[in-house]
Amino acid sequence: KHIQKSIRNYFKTK
Amino acid sequence: MFEARLTSAATLKKVLEAVKELLNEASFDCSDSGIQLQAMDNSHVSLVSLTLRSDGFDKYRCDRSLTMGMNLASMSKILKCANNDDTVTIKAQDDADTVTFVFESKKQEKISDYEMKLMNLDQEHLGIPETDFSCVIRMPSVEFARIVRDLAQFGETVLICCTKEGVKFSVSGDVGSANVKLAQTNNFDKEEESVSIEMQEPVSLSFACQYLISFTKATPLSPRVQLSMSSNVPLVVEYEIAELGYIRYYLAPKIED
């Protein structure tokens, strides 16, 4: 079973 | 005053097609260097980054940097009113709350303008770090679109495994499973049709098919696509826009629970 993480987990808000 | 002119509306139409499935609205940041757009899709799983360089336009003027928030469905309605070979000019005054699209036919016998209200979008900008990717795959964009479309019928998640020998796309679901293997080609005559792989170390990552399908809406922009992967970081799917810039899509991998 796969879970989808948000792209926010990888890139920080500027 | 902002003014950007392209001799073929077709390019702008293709750019819009490449983003409008993922984004309902977007901010176009205009500066001396060109037009940039960075936005996450509604579910914040992927990120679209578009760059159109000022030197790629037939005419470009931007006296003061400005951000134009646009509803992409409205923009699409407007661009549908242009013929592919019309010249398109995007115009806005400094601090304006509207943008104007002017379409001119080749022989100048028909000139139309469409004014659209701008939106104030409070969009979050993410910092994208420079990454040395473990694998960079270059292949025909049509081939990538075909693989994604074919495999998406059989499952929600595609596993992409890249080794020096080639790249394998795998899906499994209720019906069964499917694999597509592409070998690296040594087709120097037909570079456009080749599959090339630059690999530091092998990578296997899983991604949601639905997003990859959305990314392939950029296929008409470029004959080639580049996939960049490293373990535990987002996939980058990049389409070059000839002489104008690029569109990059970032997609967070799916992780085993």
Characterization of this structure:
The complex is a heterodimer of chains A (14) and B (257). Helices cover 0% and strands 36% of the residues of chain A. Chain A is mainly beta and 14 residues long. The mean pLDDT of chain A is 90. In chain B, helix 1 (9-19) packs antiparallel against helix 2 and helix 3 (141-152) packs antiparallel against helix 4. Chain B is mostly beta strands. Chain B has helices spanning 9-19, 72-79, 141-152, 209-215; strands at 2-6, 25-31, 34-40, 46-53, 59-62, 66-71, 87-92, 98-104, 111-117, 126-127, 135-140, 157-162, 166-172, 177-183, 196-199, 203-208, 224-229, 235-241, 245-251, 254-256. The N and C termini of chain B lie far apart (52 Å). Chain A binds chain B through residues 1-14, and chain B through 40, 43-47, 124-129, 157, 206, 208, 233-234, 250-257. Strand 2 (12-13) of chain A pairs antiparallel with strand 10 of chain B, so a sheet runs across the interface.
Rg calculated over all Cα atoms of chain B: 20 Å
User: How would you classify the helix and strand content of chain A by structural class?
Assistant: mainly beta
- Beta strand count of chain B: 20
Biggest β-sheet of chain B: count, sense, barrel?
9 strands, antiparallel
Helix content of chain A: under 10%
* Unreliable stretches covering 5 or more consecutive residues of chain B: none
Strand content of chain A: 35-45%
Overall mean pLDDT of chain A stands at: 90
Poorly predicted ranges of chain A (pLDDT <50, ≥5 residues)?
none
Number of helices of chain B: 4
Globular, elongated, flat, extended or rod-shaped: what is the shape of chain A?
rod-shaped
Q: How widely separated are the two ends of chain A?
A: 32 Å
Strand tally of chain A, please?
2
Strand order of the largest sheet of chain B: 6-2-3-4-19-18-17-11-15
The amount of helix of chain B comes to 10-25%
Helical segment tally of chain A? 0
In whole angstroms, the N-to-C terminal distance of chain B is 52 Å
Order of helices and strands of chain A: EE
Shape of chain B: elongated
What's the oligomerization state? heterodimer
